[in-house]
């Protein structure tokens, strides 16, 4: 797959324009982002991703189009786990409802940049060391097992070293000042909680990327497709946050489905590593088979979840989203307490 510099520039330009349009049109006047508005944007980003898949399919060929689809679906599904931690972060920093969309908008922009850097590193490692796939396979298998068992784990709010560094070395205030990221008090510049929580969202996503980036490299080795799949997944992720109390709360077996998909990709990577580093001829899993498997697993996951919740509505109370909401209540305001105490009334 030969991607020209012009196409890279055009793609990055369109991505930047989408964020600018979102910032200027949607977030020009911060407001409470309702489920109906969120649903419209989710549909819009899904359609945009499918149109991009058609472009790749026609311009580069069916195989690459299928690689993008498989990668995007996988990344989008894995990104849902980010939302559970975002719920806790938003509560911990007591983010006002009207500012939540802005936090996610800028936080996701930071996440895309950081993921882009990680993709460059991953692509370089794969091109130089064929054995990299062994490492990816082992890591994904471990992740699959962890995801399968992850229902009762509690998010680590203290695990972001960058946030601790900001809190320690920069003057911060515990009060939000509209959409300002910093404010001057008595001649001294203070960072507001809005800046800290945006940084927390953007950098915390990088922890999830350590799982998802190896996964998508198991479906395509093309950096352009890896980046595009991540970008589309994260852009649509923001609006999903505001739909958590709807359909997503009913997909109670999501972790099981994601664990199965990660395990499948781990096996695929291991077989490819064997083929590339030994004289063995293991079975080759085609992209068509991968796409079919991923779509089937997700379809079965959604259907069985909805059927189970319909028969026993109380099951939804034990879903990952319900657990995340409970954790958010337990940690409400804790992030603010760690910040400085700049007095805005001074």
UniProtKB/TrEMBL annotation:
Membrane topology term reads: Multi-pass membrane protein
Identify the Pfam families for this entry.
Answer: TerC
One cellular component term (GO) for this entry is: membrane
What is the annotated localization of this protein?
Membrane
Print the keywords alphabetically.
Membrane, Transmembrane, Transmembrane helix
The primary site where this protein sits is membrane
Q: Where are the transmembrane segments?
A: 6-26, 38-60, 80-96, 103-125, 131-148, 190-217, 223-244, 251-271, 291-309
The record's region (Disordered) falls at: 320-346
Instruction: Point out the signal peptide segment.
Output: none
- Name under which the protein is recorded: Unannotated protein
């Amino acid at each position: 797959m030969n991607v020209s510099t012009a196409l890279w520039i055009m793609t990055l330009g369109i991505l930047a324009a989408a964020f600018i349009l979102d910032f200027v049109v949607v977030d020009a006047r911060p407001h409470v982002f309702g489920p109906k508005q969120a649903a419209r944007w989710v549909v819009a980003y899904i359609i945009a991703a499918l149109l991009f898949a058609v472009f790749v399919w026609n311009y580069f060929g069916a195989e690459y189009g299928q690689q993008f689809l498989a990668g995007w679906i996988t990344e989008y599904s894995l990104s849902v786990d980010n939302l559970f931690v975002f719920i806790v972060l938003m509560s911990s920093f007591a983010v006002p409802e009207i500012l939540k969309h802005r936090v996610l908008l800028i936080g996701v922009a930071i996440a895309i940049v950081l993921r882009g850097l990680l993709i460059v590193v991953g692509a370089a490692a794969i091109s130089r060391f064929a054995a990299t796939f062994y490492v990816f396979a082992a890591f994904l298998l471990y992740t699959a097992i962890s995801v399968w068992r992850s229902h009762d784990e509690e998010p680590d709010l203290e695990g972001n070293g960058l946030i601790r560094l900001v809190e320690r070395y920069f003057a911060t205030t515990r009060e939000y000042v509209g959409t300002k990221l910093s404010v001057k008090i008595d001649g001294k510049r203070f960072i507001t909680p809005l800046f800290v929580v945006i940084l927390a969202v953007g950098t915390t996503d990088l922890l999830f990327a350590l799982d998802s980036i190896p996964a998508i490299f198991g479906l395509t080795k093309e950096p352009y497709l890896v980046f595009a799949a991540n970008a589309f997944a994260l852009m649509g992720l923001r609006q999903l946050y505001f739909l958590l109390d709807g359909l997503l709360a009913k997909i109670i077996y999501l972790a099981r489905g994601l664990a199965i998909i990660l395990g499948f990709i781990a096996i695929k990577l291991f077989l490819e590593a064997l083929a590339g580093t030994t004289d063995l001829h293991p079975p080759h899993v085609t992209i068509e088979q991968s796409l079919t498997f991923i779509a089937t697993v997700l379809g079965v996951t959604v259907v069985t979840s909805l059927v189970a919740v319909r028969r026993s509505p109380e099951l939804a109370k034990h879903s990952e989203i319900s657990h995340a909401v409970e954790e958010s209540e337990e940690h409400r305001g804790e992030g603010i307490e760690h910040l400085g105490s700049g007095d805005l009334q001074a």
